[in-house]
């Protein structure tokens, strides 16, 4: 470190005039602690500046001293006894805002929890509502079907044919409802085993001794509704066989399940 | 009557000030108010405002005396810097500018005359003498920086001289001041 060069750089003057930035100031302070000659030089510079400033010395007005000390005494009292009023007001304001904020936070938590509970309730009510309305629709469809079934069944022109189980399935029973005038034919399954995968029941009408396809039966578990089949103007008997899915042009007699004669 | 307190060395004074001793502040006021007021008045260019700033400065000295440390310079330097900073802030504040603008021209001339009229302290070399011996361009740079709070760059812009010249002039001015003071 070249002491002379450093001093001649004018950095000490800059420091004394408050023109150094933070890192420069730190550097000057460190060097002054390390090297007494810098400190001595800085002190001299400072003294020169202070002396120059002092040349402008001038008396403030006489009453100012009293005012200054009144103010200092006030500060002193407040420092010892209590916090200044403005400060107290400030602290009060801070305390008040902290309390208000805390209350608002608590309030928000309560409201949020209520909101969540209500929202959950609403969601479950909505689900229930949807379920209920779905059930109602299902019921409505069933009711409509039953009503129309009922209308068919109560028609006085209807002929009821009971198809009983043959040796393949003695327990089985299917009813046929046939309106000879309108030619409409319906069946109602009372008891019939569910067909295996790939198989389907087929209804046959025996017309003049020959079996004629009367339609495929799409069976569902526990189904007791009327199935509309093909129209027939004449038939002596009805029978159901189990065929491959989609039906067969001729009945497979070995898979005959039920059969019934139309009573005259 | 109460005996006036004197302090033989600065560290004793500082210790008393840190203890918020009223006599110490009394001593401080009596011994430094003129120098501090002079600087403030020179900066704010209004005695009325300077009185307010000096009061504010003493309050600040009272409040911040604990942060003063001898290592960073003398107590006087510390106080001068408090006064300078407060004054420069005041001079740059909007309210101050409005107030001085509201003064009529006669008052303003008065202020200028007053600020040029300086009480010369008998134990110091006179301002007029110093001014006479300082080169005007050197004094100008020192005044811009010390009394108006200019940075090197601002002084360079304002006076239309290179930054290096600003620094050289500062150094030259201070060397000259030191010389004059040594005599």
Provide structural commentary:
The complex is a heterodimer of chains A (264) and B (183). Chain A has 264 residues and is α+β, with helices and mostly antiparallel strands. Chain A contains 6 helices and 8 strands. Chain A has helices spanning 3-8, 11-16, 22-34, 36-54, 63-80, 85-153; strands at 158-165, 173-179, 185-191, 199-207, 210-217, 226-229, 237-244, 256-261. Chain A has an 8-stranded antiparallel beta sheet with strand order 5-4-7-8-1-2-3-6, with helices on one face. Chain A is rod-shaped and about 145 Å long. The mean pLDDT of chain A is 88. Chain B has 183 residues and is mainly alpha-helical. Chain B folds into 2 domains: 1-119, RNA polymerase sigma factor, region 2, helix turn helix motif (Rna Polymerase Sigma Factor, Chain: A); 120-183, Winged helix-like DNA-binding domain superfamily/Winged helix DNA-binding domain (Arc Repressor Mutant, subunit A, Orthogonal Bundle). Chain B is 75% helix and 0% strand. Chain B has 10 helices and no strands. The radius of gyration of chain B is 18 Å and the shape is globular. Classes of the chains: A alpha+beta (264), B mainly alpha (183). At the A-B interface, helix 2, helix 4 and helix 5 of A face helix 2, helix 3, helix 4, helix 8 and helix 10 of B.
């Amino acid at each position: 470190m070249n002491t002379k060069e450093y001093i001649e750089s004018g950095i000490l003057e800059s420091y004394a005039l408050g023109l150094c930035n933070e890192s420069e100031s730190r550097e000057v302070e460190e060097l002054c602690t390390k090297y007494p000659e810098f400190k001595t030089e800085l002190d001299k510079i400072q003294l020169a500046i202070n002396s120059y400033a002092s040349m402008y010395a001038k008396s403030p007005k006489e009453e100012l001293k009293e005012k200054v000390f009144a103010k200092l005494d006030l500060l002193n009292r407040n420092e010892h006894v209590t916090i200044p009023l403005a400060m107290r007001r400030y602290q009060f304001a801070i305390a008040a805002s902290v309390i208000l904020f805390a209350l608002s936070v608590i309030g928000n938590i309560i409201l949020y929890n209520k909101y969540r509970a209500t929202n959950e309730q609403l969601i479950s009510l909505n689900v229930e509502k949807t379920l209920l309305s779905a059930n109602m629709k299902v019921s409505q469809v069933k009711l409509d079907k039953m009503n129309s079934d009922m209308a068919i069944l109560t028609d006085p022109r209807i002929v009821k044919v009971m198809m009983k189980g043959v040796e393949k399935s003695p327990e089985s029973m299917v009813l046929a409802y046939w309106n000879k005038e309108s030619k409409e034919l319906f069946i109602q399954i009372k008891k019939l085993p569910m067909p295996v995968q790939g198989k389907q029941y087929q209804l046959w009408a025996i017309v003049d001794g020959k079996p004629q396809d009367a339609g495929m039966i799409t069976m569902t578990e526990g189904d007791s509704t009327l199935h509309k089949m093909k129209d027939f103007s004449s038939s002596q008997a009805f029978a159901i066989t189990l065929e491959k899915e989609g039906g067969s042009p001729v009945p497979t007699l070995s898979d005959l399940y039920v059969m019934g004669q139309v009573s005259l | 009557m109460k005996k006036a307190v004197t302090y033989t060395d600065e560290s004793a004074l500082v210790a008393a000030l840190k203890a918020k001793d009223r006599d110490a502040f009394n001593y401080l006021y009596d011994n430094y108010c003129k120098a501090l007021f002079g600087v403030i008045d020179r900066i704010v260019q209004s005695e009325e405002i300077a009185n307010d700033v000096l009061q504010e400065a003493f309050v600040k000295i009272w409040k911040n005396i604990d942060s003063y440390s001898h290592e960073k310079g003398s107590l006087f330097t510390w106080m001068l810097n408090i006064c300078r900073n407060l004054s420069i802030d005041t001079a740059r504040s909007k309210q101050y500018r409005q107030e001085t603008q509201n003064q009529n021209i006669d008052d303003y001339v008065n202020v200028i005359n007053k600020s040029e009229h300086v009480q010369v302290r008998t134990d110091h070399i006179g301002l007029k003498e110093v001014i006479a011996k300082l080169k005007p361009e050197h004094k100008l740079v020192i005044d811009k920086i010390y009394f108006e709070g200019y940075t090197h760059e601002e002084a360079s812009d304002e006076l239309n001289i290179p930054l290096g010249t600003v620094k050289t002039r500062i150094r030259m001015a201070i060397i000259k001041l030191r010389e004059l003071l040594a005599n």
